[in-house]
């Protein structure tokens, strides 16, 4: 059996002497280590590459006289040696509408277990194609390929992936590392595909990097390593899943002579351990390192010599475990992180659609709850304000009118607004006040009953009166300044005396003049804005019961005969009853005003806004889905070679599909979270704006946008579902990539 390609002018004796000298040198190193009693360790040679001292207990046993010398700390590098056989194999490329190229023609070849075979020949002669068939990356057009006793050309993709994962490793000329991953992650990738636990695969990855002398560069990204370092990482990765067959495609073609020599020495050591090694090269010097050489010319294998018989019936192996879902998510999300700007823009599109949908759901929920809220039932939304007719002789209403209106259907409560004009004096002075020369004039107006209406003013200091009969007063800020308080809040807790001069807000329009005054002393408990007073005039607000008692105290001595109410307010028992109640009041000849009309106009505006948001959400989600599909298609094109690498390492089509689906799901999840958070923020801003718009008809705020946890969760799940569906077709395209073509993609 020929062991090397003989150079012109070189005798067989010279060749044998050179081989004998190399073998004796290696044996000397082994004997030296054994003599020192040391465990054979990985030694860094002058080339900078770690050489592995031979031997594995589970590999084919070496000669008895060297068995004790061949020991080291790396006893788990290889699995069972794999034999190969090719029977009349041909491989053609090109479809019907493409030019046909015949890469291999009727090649028959045996490679025995533990054999080191070099395949030589010029570029384009079919060497790499032959290697792809041996590694299960491609299928023959005609003929049969057997590896480890398996008919590779007839295996389904699933079993062929198991063969690549557990039996064979390929070392590529261009390294085919994933640049964005660290050296450690690249070495651990086959272990990840095999479902190895994170702690174990991390330990083995570091173990293999130490073997090739790169433990210090474990955390460095592969794209930042030198060519020699990348090839060492590729060798370490090839050993990750303990292969029995190592296919090396021009392993020294991209390296300088020193780094190339180190890689060849490492491959020779692996072959001595028991690995079947097939090396493709166009360099005769490299081919001489093999025990057998096959020459390829124009797709044909010539100058063949008999190798060892192929073992077709080998020990079975258990079905390969596969990637855990956590690793699928991690690797998939890592793919999205390699294109941060594109992924961020795509996620933003999803976020816009999800935010719009979330706002629509929050708006629908918030409006329904606001309309059913107890506070709304006692607010001005359910109130009907009644005024005298325009041509009435006296622009005021009396107690008899209030009694009549209170008996109308659908009236829950009724009260009148009393107003008096008079003067205020501060009975109890406080620090920081100056007494005015003339007591300031103002108006004293009754508050709505505390238990019947929520349309109460907002105090800027202090509190509301404790009851309808408490002699407590809310003083306007302008009246407090008129009384001499430098700060309106300083009036809280002081006593103020009010002396009525007229039993109406406009004395000239009524006959209720005060001829016998009766001052009434109040305790100031709160300050409010003058904007709540009619026309912004200064004055104060007193409890409803106190005002009625004060009116009665003045009516007798001054001879008043009614006209105590400037307006009457009716509280309907429901929002639906507001309209019929208003019609009944108007049929009696009174003027009415319903503040609910304003709120309903606002509700109509929100309904139109809801439709607009729905349209925006649908458009945004459609654009987001297209963006995700475009992003994933682009990712498939950009990562075609990476897909080929993963399949060459043993990834199944299903694994590749799930990786890309995980990437699309990650983009959708990010978009959903951002959209949900944006919806929560916009909802709060919207509620604040609505509160300012509706404070004139209700004293309490309404959460028009109510973003509940279920709405947020549904929005996020929807984003994930839409993203997964959008990324499904690109993921299927990635899964269907042919590994041999993907590896040639540029």
H/I helix tally: 20
Mean pLDDT: 78
What level of helicity do the residues show? 40-55%
Given the helix and strand composition, which structural class is it? alpha+beta
Radius of gyration: 46 Å
Query: Can you tell me the overall shape?
Result: rod-shaped
What's the structural blueprint in terms of helices and strands?
Elements lengths: L11 H24 L7 E2 L5 E2 L32 E10 L7 E11 L4 E5 L6 H8 L7 E6 L2 E2 L5 H10 L1 E4 L11 H11 L4 H14 L15 H12 L6 E5 L7 H17 L2 E6 L2 H4 L4 E6 L2 E3 L22 H13 L2 H32 L2 H4 L5 E5 L11 H8 L4 E16 L14 E6 L12 E4 L9 E5 H6 L12 E8 L17 E9 L10 E4 L1 H15 L6 E8 L5 H10 L3 E4 L1 H43 L1 H9 L4 H42 L14 H27 L3 H6 L2
Parallel strand pairs: 5-10, 5-11, 8-9, 9-10, 15-20, 17-19
Antiparallel strand pairs: 1-2, 3-4, 3-6, 6-7, 11-12, 13-21, 13-22, 14-15, 14-18, 14-21, 16-19, 17-20, 18-19
Helix pairs in contact: 4-5, 4-6, 5-6, 9-18, 10-16, 10-18, 10-19, 16-17, 16-18, 16-19, 18-19
